[in-house]
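Exam revision sheet. Question 4 asks you to relate a sequence to its structure. Input first:
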Amino acid sequence: MEAINILYFLSSIWILSRVSAQHTIPANQPLTDGSTIISSDGKFKLEFFSPGTSGKRYLGILFNKVTVQTVVWVANRDNPLNDTSSALNLTRQGILTLLNGSGRIIWSSNSTRHGKNPVAQLLDSGNLVVRDAAEDKPQNYLWQSFDNPGDPALPGMKVGINLKTGFHRSLSSWKSTNDPSRGQFTWTFDTGGFVQTFIMNGSIELYRARQWNGRVFPNAPSSDTSWNGYNYTYLSDPNEISFMYELTDSSIIARVVMQLNGFLQLSEWNNQTQNWDDVVSAPADNCDIYGQCHSYGLCNSGNSPICRCLDKFEPKDPTEWARGNWSGGCVRKTAILNCQKEVKFFKYQGIKLPDTRFSWYSGGVTLNACEELCLRNCSCMAYANPDITGTNEDCLLWFDELMDIREFGATGQDIYVKLDSSELGNSSTGKVKKLRISLPLAALGLFLVLCLIMYIRQKKKNQQYFRKGRRPRISEMLCTKERKDKELDLPLFDFETISHTTNNFSLNNKLGEGGFGPVYKGMLEDGQEIAVKRLSRYSAQGTDEFKNEVIFIAKLQHRNLVKLLGCCIQAEKRCWFMSTCQIIAWIGSFLIGGHCLIGLSASILLMELLADFSIFIKTQDCG
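Answer key, structure tokens:
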């Protein structure tokens, strides 16, 4: 009998030694207190431990090559064990269970996924996973400790939210150095508006990290995603929102910890001092305390006092503000009372964008379109593009007081705050607005100047015709479909000549007035008498009427109709873009026994009178 007991004892030691030498736990081969699972690279270990001076026992993952006890994950952090008689077991279904000495389950992985041949493995990343023995793809893990973080985040561990399940991966501090149960401080993601992260002291905001802007890790002293041996990644898609950092130097041992004093700390192990060195810490200074300068207050830890109001704002309570009590915040010097009031935007540069829990975000919206959206919404207080990489056009609108702003300088961002237009007389935004107005006006002015130049050139060209003793032909001036018709090839007269022949349209030369304007008696330089019809500005005759009348009179031959001599056109013609030329006005008339000349200028009709004007009353209407 004694020999059997000795054999059983030796076999148990052999089994335990095999477990401790491996980095996996097969099903139904429990890990007992005193045994250890070590990752294949030797960096991490899974074992039972007692934190600090506590006599309680916990199952956890620790750094293996660090001389100071450093825990990275605790299974039963809220349910300690009282003795060393406990064991961790993996069931045939792939569920990890922690049993006390009496066989009661103290903690369980509660996995809903099962495998045919499950195995638990401690990876080189410090992640304890349960997987099928034939499957090692991360997406097929049955369970992993990285989905249930404690106070630290290790390289490769995601912190964030699963948007489909609503599951949060948040860091929570220990209650004390002897008690790993959940403390009062947590680092968590908030998706109330545009995504941001907070350190919460219970339900109170202690610190708000700057929003992910495409480059910067919260409070990292760099504006690049690769910094001092670290790469960090922000993921936002329909499935999840998460943050993760990784090491580019495998020799570095690092961790991000939610400390029990409320600080979020990135630390590296120093082999020389055999201690942890703090690299980055948040809150880093007084300006990192949430809402230090309250609404519309701007914090700068290099100033004294550290708080001041944004430009164009003033303290709500100047007396308390002067005493260093900034809880009242700041208000606009000129209030925006309603939508009817004229408003503009003032640009603030190099800042930490305000709290975005009461904001609206949309991708693919230009900055100008974002401004218009804010202008059209009475409740919109400010807008910005949260991305500083220049690769994305995003729009972020704020609909509440702007809270928790601080100066960041070169690594900060720009925001445009709505103000009364009277406050922005000489602002850069006002200059931009003036530029937007002046540029179209300048373009219009240039267009008019070009038109004037073309008009002058055409006028000089016409004058050259007259000086040469040759009158331009109507076919050279009109853009009708029949411009090549020789019957329409009528001479043109300039307005000065016609005005001279009628004694400047004297009333003494007026013969009568018809529906489209008055008719005047005139005489050309060669002594030829003519009738001139000048179109009234109130005439309803238009382009089509003139065109039809010219064609009709020029072609029509009748003994009771006078011959059409020509016309006077005083206007630029733009044949290149219209089907017919645009001319100020058109006149057509008939005269018995003489010649009729259609014209305009303010528009003029010339008619040669072959009969004496004493018989004019007997003629057909020339007006």
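Marking note for examiners. The CA atoms of residues 242 and 272 lie 34 Å apart.
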